[in-house]
Design goal:
This protein has 392 residues and is an all-alpha fold. It contains 17 helices and three strands. Helix 1 packs antiparallel against helix 8 and helix 8 crosses helix 17. The protein binds s-citryldethia Coenzyme A. It catalyses: oxaloacetate + acetyl-CoA + H2O = citrate + CoA + H(+).
Length: 392
């Protein structure tokens, strides 16, 4: 065979590494970051604290958290020439493509982020990316809606500063909306890491060649974009809108999914690991009710989502396949209530997942993991004699 004798498509039964960062139990719907339950972290911690926990392994003391935040703030500028690259994109460019490109482009302005072998070099590259990625994310949005590319305010918290960069009007004061900041902080925590999912495995694979942190993350952003992965949060809202436009008949759509008619997937349902409720979906569903109430937003697609969930949980096709709502099913409803456009939903996922990707990349490098290079089962032609052009 010239390779191996068996393969494992999608690595459904393959462990790629040892990791001490995130623990999942798919049967029981358990998710822990460095041993702490996601329910506790979502309720009691803030996003930057959880980012520190994931990356460095411990909940930070106040001094450690303040230093981490001030090191990040010291790097929260992006070279003005990056705006010229952003200018080159059409307004219609999908923000995930823009973010993957700009994250890669950052290398040119931060060459020290490439050959990071010492822990100190890694730390410097990490705080640079934690600082600049929110700026790029906000700029990708502002470019789409024709607003000036601006900075927030280093006196604000990490998430509050991001919200200001996103929504601050060119004229007039920015009044922080605590409901939005708190809800986004919780959503980012819930998205922060998820062991060896598709995009994290991509970050590890690219990072294993020692290509550098920024391009490894850029590759992770590309992988997350797919509708089977992080792109599902955008696809869920598009699906719910389609059902609403079609008169709100969830049963008809369920039937299409069961008959595997295109687009047969019930977006936001199913998971490779969770064969029970995704614990994040439970928290987000509750948060959706709270946030929409607090913002005084009525969104008919929330009722459609709940109707779809109820019907699926009582339908053998979904129950037999253990298809439950996942992290992407309700998150878009909250983003929308916040005024975040649907094309920015997956960038929000990326903003949340950034510390997890960084933590996994750092662990892979500190453990000196070998370069990723799987084998194959060859199914092509046997040896053939070459034929010159005039004989073909
Ligand atoms: C994320 O891995 C992670 O941890 C990811 C993530 C993270 O935090 O990083 O949790 C984030 O990506 C969540 C998942 C977002 N994706 C979606 O919501 C897209 C819809 N979901 C599916 O595409 C699917 O469920 C996956 C991709 C999530 C998982 O796919 P698997 O494990 O490869 O399962 P499969 O495609 O082999 O399906 C098994 C069966 C099939 O039916 P049969 O062939 O056995 O008859 O279940 C069916 C599938 O057709 N099925 C679905 C379905 N998902 C699976 N049928 C209808 N709707 C769905 N959503």
């Amino acid at each position: 065979t010239g390779g191996v004798t068996t393969i494992d498509p999608g690595y459904k039964n393959t462990g790629s590494c040892e990791s001490a960062i995130t623990f999942l139990n798919g049967e029981e719907g358990i998710l822990r970051y460095r041993g702490y339950a996601i329910e506790d972290l979502a309720d009691k911690a803030d996003f930057l604290e959880v980012a520190y926990l994931l990356i460095f392994g411990e909940l930070p003391s106040k001094e450690q958290l303040d230093k981490f935040h001030s090191d990040i703030k010291a790097q929260s500028h992006v070279d003005e020439d990056v705006k010229k690259i952003l200018d080159g994109f059409p307004k219609s460019a999908h923000p995930m493509g823009v973010l993957s490109s700009l994250t890669s482009a950052l290398v040119a302005f931060n060459p020290s982020s490439v050959n990071v072998d010492s822990e100190e070099d890694m730390y410097n590259a990490i705080v640079r990316l934690m600082a600049k990625f929110p700026v790029l994310t906000a700029w990708a949005y502002r470019k789409r809606v024709g607003l000036p590319l601006d900075y927030g305010d280093d006196n604000l918290g990490y998430v509050d500063n991001f919200v200001k960069m996103m929504f601050k009007k060119p004229s007039g004061e920015y009044t922080p909306n605590k409901v939005i900041v708190d809800a986004l902080d919780k959503l980012l925590i819930l998205h922060a890491d998820h062991e060896q999912n598709c995009s994290t495995s991509t970050v590890r694979m690219v990072g294993s060649s020692h290509a550098g942190l920024f391009v490894s993350i850029s590759a992770g952003i590309a992988a997350l974009w797919g509708p089977l992965h992080g792109g599902a949060n955008q696809a869920v809202i598009e699906m719910l809108e389609a059902i609403k436009e079609d008169g709100g008949d969830t049963h008809k759509f369920m039937q299409k999914a069961k008959d595997k008619q295109d687009p047969f997937r019930l977006m936001g349902f199913g998971h490779r690991v969770y064969k029970n409720f995704d614990p994040r979906a439970k928290i987000i569903k509750k948060s959706a009710d709270d946030v929409l109430d607090a913002l005084g937003v009525e969104d008919p697609v929330l009722d459609i989502a709940k109707g779809l969930e109820k019907e699926a949980l009582e339908d053998n096709y979904f129950v037999d396949r253990k298809l439950y709502p996942n992290v992407d099913f309700y998150s878009g409803i909250i983003y929308r209530a916040m005024g975040i456009p649907v094309e920015m939903f997956t960038p929000m996922f990326a903003l949340g997942r950034l510390p997890g990707w960084i933590a996994q990349w750092r662990e892979m490098r500190l453990r000196k993991e070998p370069i990723g290079r799987p084998r194959q089962v060859y199914i092509g032609e046997n040896h053939r004699e070459f034929k010159s052009l005039d004989k073909r």
